[in-house]
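Question: Send over one sample?
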Amino acid sequence: MLKSTLLKAVATTALTFSTWASAQAVDLQFYFPVAVGGGAAEVIQGMTDEYMANHPDVKIDAVYSGSYQDTVAKVITASRGGNAPQLSVVLSADMYTLIDEDLVVPFDDYLTTDEEKAWLAGFYPSFMENSQTGGKTYGIPFQRSTPVLYWNKEAFKAAGLDPEVAPASWDELVEFGKKLTKKDANGNVTQWGVRIPSSGFPYWTFQGFAISNGVTLANAEGNKTSFDDPKVVEALQYFVDLSAKHGVMAPGIIEWGATPKAFFEGESAIILTTTGNLTNIKTNAPFDFGVAMLPEKEQRGAPTGGGNFYLFKGASDEQLDAAVDFVQWITAPAQSAKWTMATGYVAPRAETWETEAMKTYAAEFPQVLVARDQLEFAKAELSTYQNQRVTGFFNDALAAAITGQKTPEEALKEAQTQADAVLAEYR
């Protein structure tokens, strides 16, 4: 009888403790976008589940929120409605928009120890250009990227080109593209030499040409653009001429999402897309392929891109502490290496590349190093206040020039006038 009473007491105590622990668990909602093919969403969910298994006092509802554009719209809408997530991955370029909307809090207040400050200092400086402003850190790099060239080595060999050498300059891209563009007996193109997407993120894929021509599209304060700079006009003219003059790229708007598939199926011998597609291409390309930095004109250059973690207002200190701990965990070497190998996104901290897992992977698959090495020449992605509107003006200008509705100079001058009207109040 005494034993039975004791067992009941122990069971009651255990139940009471379990109920108390559950009540004390920190609940987080985490939005994440996926902008590339492959199983990125499953990898994110798996890592989130792993964190919760090791941190039973934290419950994270990981919500796949669509594209980057979908995600920023959803977090703004949810925040305005008083139902913001505590944590989200949003484009690094949307930092000024989130600050302007007064939606986010800086990480600095939650990184107080020497160890935490050392962790913050360990991210690649080029990624932090779109993560810090006014002496504060608003974004933590996670699924970060640069655009790179991919080329079909079999197509190069068939065209009489060295399959191990990519075009390194604007002139070589045209030269190689002409040799790689194939037509049938009726004059119809069966293989394009070059494919550069102009939907989805047209400003980003184009930005590499502007940077390599020695000009950036916006200042570091996010309140002034240089869309009508002569070097930007020259870069856009080159972009247009790939189709209109040189005939090495399909005319009109080229779809972002269809680009890897066009590569797999031999529709284009060279493509430009994000390194975030690297694992997708590695898995699905039925031929040997190479990866290279973007071609140069005056210099090497590429924009950084991809998503940062942001903390949102309205969360409790306990939630923000837990969110910061999760961010530190998922960007740590073991998890970061897993994410890079699963997707191709650039591990944003040098220490990840020193792990045995990454050293082994890079030795077997050296293409993974290209985007990392390109960071030496990379500049911040186009980012301004009211970023969605301003990049919209620029994307419209690109489309107008690509489709022949306006000259590059006319289109960019109009976009600059529109951007000035929006950004004047922020200067």
Remarks:
- The radius of gyration is 24 Å.
- The longest helix spans residues 2-24.
- Confidence is low (pLDDT under 50) at residues 1-23.
- Residues 147-303+386-426 form a domain with the D-Maltodextrin-Binding Protein; domain 2 fold (CATH 3.40.190.10).
